[in-house]
Each structure stands twice: as C-alpha cells, then as structure tokens.
Amino acid sequence: MVSLNEKSKGVLIRSRVKHVEENEKCTRYFFKKLYKAKPAIDTLINEEGKEVKSTQEILKVAHSFYTNLYKEQSMDEETVESFISKLTQKLDPEDSIILDESITLEEITRAMESMQDNKSPGMDGLPKEYYQAFWEQLSPSLCKVYKEAWDKGVWSTSMNTGAISLLWKKGTKKNLRNWRPLTLLGVDIKILSKALYFRLQTVVSKLVGTEQTCGIQGRKMTDSLAIIRDSYLYRIDLEKAFDNVNHMFLMKVLEILGFGEGFRRWIHVLYSSCIGVKAGVRQGCPLSPTLFILVMEPLACALRANELMKGLTPPGSGGLEIKFSMYMDDITLPLFFKIFNKVFIFKQRCIKSPVFTWRSIILVH
C-alpha cells in the first residue's frame, strides 16, 4: 500500500514545487518565479473559429481536438507498399532472436538506474526514488508483471493510464496546435520502455542511415549542422509529428525491418491504450524517439533512391553527396515530400519551412 508520504512526494514533483527541495531558501528561483508564471489556458478557439472561455467549452474543444488527432487514419495501401519496399537494411536473424527474448532482471535494473531523480511520476504518484528504495523487493515482481502483460497482450488499467500535461511551445495560446502534449507515465511503464530502448540501441544504427541523427547513441544534432553548412536548403517541420504516427504503418515497418514477433508484441502492448488512442507515439516515453526514426526511415530510403533528386556536396564531406538531413521531425532537403503524407498523414508547417542559407546573412522566405 502506498504511503501518504510517497503520494505527497509525487504531487510535489508533478507540481514542480522547487522550494521544497531548496529548503525555502531565498534563491534566484524565487525572483524568477515572481516574473514567470506557468502558461495557463483560459481561452481557446473552437472549430468555428470562435473564442470560448468557460471551463466546459474549453474542455469540449480540447476533447474534440485530441479525439481527431489520435484517431486512426486511413492509409493509401499502394503508397505504403511502395515506401516500405524501399527499405534496404534488415536485422540479422541473430539480432532478431535476441530482441525477442524475455525481459531480464538485469535489464530492468539498468533501466531504473539510468532514470533521473525528481521527475514527474504517473497517476499512481510513485516516483523513481520509491522504486529505487525498494528495488530488491519490487524488481522480481515487476519482471512477472511484464511477462504477464506480454502473455495477455494488455496492461492493467492502472498501468495503462497516463496524465497528459500540455506544454506551451510558442504562438497564440488560444490554439491547441501550439501546445505539446506530454504524457506522464507510471515509472513501471517507463522502466520497461527504457529497457526496450537499450535493446533497440544495439541494432538501430544498422537500420537507419547516417542522415538521421536523433535517437541513436553516438549521433548528435551537430552532425546534421556540419553537413548542411554553406548551403541553400528547404526546411520542413512536421506538425504534431509524434502524434501522427500511424500504428499500423509502424508495425509494418518493424516487420519489414526484420523485428520478430516477440519485440513487435512489446510495442503493441506499450502502445495499446485504454482510451482508444489509435495514432501517435507518446511524448514522454523513452522508446518513442527511436520508434519515430524507424518510421521515418522509409522516407529516408525513398529520398536516397530518387534519381531525379540531386544532392549537395558540402565542404568537408569527402565528396559524399548529401540529399537531405533529418533530426526527429525536422527535415532539411531541396525538394520532394507530398507523397509521404499519404502514409503518415503529416501536415507541413509552412511558417517553419523557409528556403534559407546556413551560415549566411541572406534569408529567402
């Protein structure tokens, strides 16, 4: 049974009550707090373009927006097959067998120890520190819980429920498109996701081209910047990229890449929701960035194979032709994109898609 003390700690962490950690000292934190209040939603624009202010109307707009965002989208099967067929790399059978193995105590211990302290817990209020304090007693039972979830193909309701916190990015706060949904998952789910993330990291670099530099150990965003310097570029930002991942397409990509039934079953279990979420990978899940770049790899393969698309040979590339660069949902390339929308249901944010020069004074919008 969870003590009231542990629950109260979870509430404090979620509310970001930093002065509790700093023993109420008069640090710079207090002065910043005076001038920077947390963004709140007191007005939203509904589907008719009208502003609503009452709590009931705001909740109605939010419910409609996220219901449409996370509903299952139809896919163009012919286009799906044409993209998937361009995947050039596949897992070795030996790697696939290893990925399919049962989760071990050593793996979840490594995952738990890698997690940071003082992070928001899930709905149960149990932070990472709770698991760490009682790990010797909890970890064997946790392994059994994971095995049962895999066998049944579903989590318990409590484990499958997360709180969504909206983080304002920029632009008007009246438009929900300008808020990023961050899922606050239970630490028990995060431990499994992190364990699977570590497994995936052993093979993902073999499957994803060097143009993608996010979510892969040993690669970083500065690699992309070094490639595109001194060049004219077209930058595309994918609107609500994580939220628009089609689950069926994700599973097809994993299958074609050679992931076995066991690993794919883990992904199915993790992303099966009790509230009917049929699209998207959770922002806040340790595994999501790596799954996202795997979903993007068919597009990357199509770009590489397109003979009509000419790349650039930037300084310092050793004569290597660069057609594009990807970092999560930011794509930098000269041309070519609309076809992939039939698969992914992405929307381009035109305001973030200028033609520009890297390391130059002139910007051409």
TrEMBL record:
InterPro entries: DNA/RNA_pol_sf, RT_dom. Coiled coil: none annotated. Residues 148-365 form the Reverse transcriptase domain. This is Reverse transcriptase domain-containing protein. The lineage of its organism: Eukaryota, Metazoa, Chordata, Craniata, Vertebrata.
